[in-house]
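Appendix C reproduces, verbatim, an entry submitted by the partner laboratory led by Prof. M.T., so that reviewers can inspect both the input and the predicted structure.
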Amino acid sequence: VAPSAAPASAAAASAPPGEWPTAAHDPGGTRFSPLDQIDARNVGTLKLAFSFPTGNDKGHEAAPLVVGDTMYIVSPKPNYVYALDLTQPGAPQKWAYKPRVEQAAQGVACCDVVNRGLAYDNGRIFMNTLDNHTIALDANSAMAMCCGLPLPPEP
């Protein structure tokens, strides 16, 4: 019997229905929202509420997170993180965090320079950079709360 996975985040497991605190919505990775305001009868009336160009033309593969009234987005390298205010028309930017990422990381990256997503727990946004750093940001201020050392390369 294989050991079980690490315990799921309490924040993700108990998130209000309108929030999306992990890349796949919940610890089970369902990618399903229990919200029911959009259905087969009204889906055709949906319109764009806002867009947010990152200025980066590389692959954007990370799902945004929604926690409370804030949407968090991470770009491909250089791995900028943006917080958007969902209470305001057009969802203006609350803050941006712009880490310094080693340029050499691009040369060894597989499958473009994408980022697979952020994570949220206990008031922090966690991110990994293309050059193997893990950074925890205060979700309200973008202040780096801790920064991990580069991870050892895989064998």
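Residues 25 and 32 are 7 Å apart (CA to CA). Additional entries are available on request from the coordinating office.
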